[in-house]
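In response to the reviewer comment on reproducibility (Comment 2.3), we provide here a single inverse folding case reported in full, input and output, so that an independent group could reproduce the run without further information from us. The structure tokens appear first.
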């Protein structure tokens, strides 16, 4: 997130263009007068949803800006008026129009605004954006209203004392201010405000996309309850039964501003669910006679260490087999040592003299020359992302494909019609991908020699280097398609087989789960948030309980 204030028009335009190039979208903008001069304050957030921003639009021109945006499929999500010279002007943000009903009006008198408010709230609408502003004809109001089910309180024409009283009463009742506007009315300062109540017990503010399935309504309830209890902005759920997709729905919003309903087909980072795909690739190479489970990994992979550095290598790495890597018995213990090289790109880049983030090959070189094994290969099991990083390089080498992802696509995912499964990217969201939420910031892997902080999901780690252990992107239906043909172990499913498997994936900003049930039901849930202490693993028991209660037709 970036915030700027005190900008003149030229400085604001420069910031707008620069942040836009870097993948940041305008989230809030306000125009105001400072010592007679127009200035702007604005906030930009990481968001690749289609956004248009306008500033300093003269009142006579705003209607055309509005009409053009609506014609192109956009809606205003923020409209702010302000006095400018002898007239007034507008700042506005437009986003692609959601499925929910909406309406917008501007230049309303207080009486006209009150009538619009009364008429539209009676239809189930609520104010999304509200601005009071000074004009030559007195105070006027601009409002955008939507129908999204979120509980709200709307007030205008408040004195400072009245606003404080409303704020105190609203926050005591579980509401928070979503927008506050100060303006002049007859020379006196007045306030207009919107308070909303976020997700919580008994509240269902989430928009839902995808066709409803009457006999699976319990799944809707389970997802909404799970997400509300954790304030998760977006989630998708797909369910298949006996090899057929029977349910696919989206819950919540895809963008950081939470104005765009997420699609049930939205792709998300799937984190460690990636490992099932990597295992499937290995098993396929074994079935095709190109690989053996007892092959030594570093007899296949060579050239990672110079002759001068060979003495630094733990000799036991040459005993590591393909089976050891599949079973997390390669000799690395990330949990026990609290060190995972896949999240240590800055250190690796610094030690190897790299100018950017460490890729998988650089990570392997660094591990061989800077770390001893934590135990002898095969001695015990210890979860290690790094082992699956190595498997990805073996898949590339043995298959002769340009990359791990190329082999995966050609041999595993396209044959099961799972075309959305592909490599995720750290800094650039793809068109069907939501914003990821995670508290705090981290050093950017893209500038390892500088102390540049970024939101965790957008540079705190390098997801491209995680391709074969946690770096894939998929939608929920395609995960079900894969799981209808392969067990989570990566082995092909045979006709008549029955088993139960479950596996979760986790990254900053991501939490995912795959479930395979003995009754032929397969399900996949994806979420765009991860915060410590929220017990995301409870999704397994909550969804299984909901599925157990289904009366299948």
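Designed residues, in position order:
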């Amino acid at each position: 997130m970036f915030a700027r204030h005190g900008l003149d028009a030229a400085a604001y335009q420069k910031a707008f263009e620069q942040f836009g190039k870097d993948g940041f979208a305008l989230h809030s903008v306000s125009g105001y007068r400072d010592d007679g001069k127009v200035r702007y304050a604005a906030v930009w957030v990481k968001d690749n949803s289609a956004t248009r921003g306008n500033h300093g639009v003269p009142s006579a021109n705003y209607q055309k800006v509005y009409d053009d945006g609506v014609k192109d499929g956009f809606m205003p999500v923020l409209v702010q008026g302000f006095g400018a010279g002898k007239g007034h002007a507008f700042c506005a943000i437009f986003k692609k129009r959601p499925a929910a009903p909406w309406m917008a009006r501007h230049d309303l008198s207080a009486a006209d605004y009150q009538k619009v408010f009364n008429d539209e709230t009676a239809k189930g609408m609520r104010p999304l954006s509200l601005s009071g502003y000074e004009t030559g004809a007195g105070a006027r109001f601009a409002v955008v209203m939507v129908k999204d089910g979120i509980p709200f309180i709307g007030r205008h024409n408040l004195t400072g004392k009245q606003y404080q009283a409303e704020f105190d009463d609203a926050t005591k009742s579980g509401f928070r201010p979503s927008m506050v506007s100060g303006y002049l009315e007859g020379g006196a300062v007045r306030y207009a405000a919107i308070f909303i109540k976020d997700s919580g017990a008994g509240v269902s503010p989430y928009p839902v996309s995808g066709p409803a399935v009457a006999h699976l309504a319990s799944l809707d309830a389970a997802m909404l309850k799970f997400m509300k209890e954790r304030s998760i902005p977006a989630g998708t759920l797909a369910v298949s039964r006996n090899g057929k997709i029977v349910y696919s729905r989206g819950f919540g919003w895809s963008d950081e501003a939470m104005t765009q309903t997420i699609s049930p087909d939205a792709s998300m980072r799937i984190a460690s669910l990636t490992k099932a795909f990597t295992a499937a690739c290995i098993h396929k190479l074994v079935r095709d006679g190109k690989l053996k489970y007892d092959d030594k990994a570093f007899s296949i992979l060579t050239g990672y260490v110079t002759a001068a550095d060979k003495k630094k290598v733990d000799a036991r790495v040459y005993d590591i087999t393909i089976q050891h890597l599949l079973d997390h018995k390669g000799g690395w213990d990330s949990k026990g040592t609290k060190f995972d090289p896949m999240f240590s790109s800055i250190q690796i880049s610094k030690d190897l003299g790299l100018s950017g983030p460490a890729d998988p090959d650089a990570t392997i070189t660094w591990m061989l020359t800077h770390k001893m094994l934590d135990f002898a290969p095969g001695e015990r099991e210890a979860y290690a992302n790094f082992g699956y990083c190595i498997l990805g390089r073996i898949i590339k080498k043995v298959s002769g494909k340009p990359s791990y992802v190329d082999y995966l696509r050609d041999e595993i995912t396209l044959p099961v019609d799972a075309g959305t499964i592909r490599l995720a990217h750290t800094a650039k969201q793809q068109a069907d991908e939501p914003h990821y939420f995670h508290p705090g910031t981290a050093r950017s892997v893209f500038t390892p020699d500088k102390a540049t902080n970024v939101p965790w999901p957008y540079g705190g780690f390098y997801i491209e280097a995680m391709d074969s252990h946690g770096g894939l992107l998929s939608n929920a239906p395609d995960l079900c398609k894969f799981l209808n043909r392969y067990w989570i172990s990566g082995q092909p499913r045979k006709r008549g087989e029955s088993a139960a498997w479950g596996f979760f994936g986790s990254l900053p900003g991501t939490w995912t789960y795959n479930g395979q049930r003995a009754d032929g039901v397969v399900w996949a849930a994806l979420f765009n948030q991860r915060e410590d202490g929220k017990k995301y693993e409870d999704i397994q028991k909550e969804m299984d309980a909901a599925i157990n209660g289904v009366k299948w037709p």
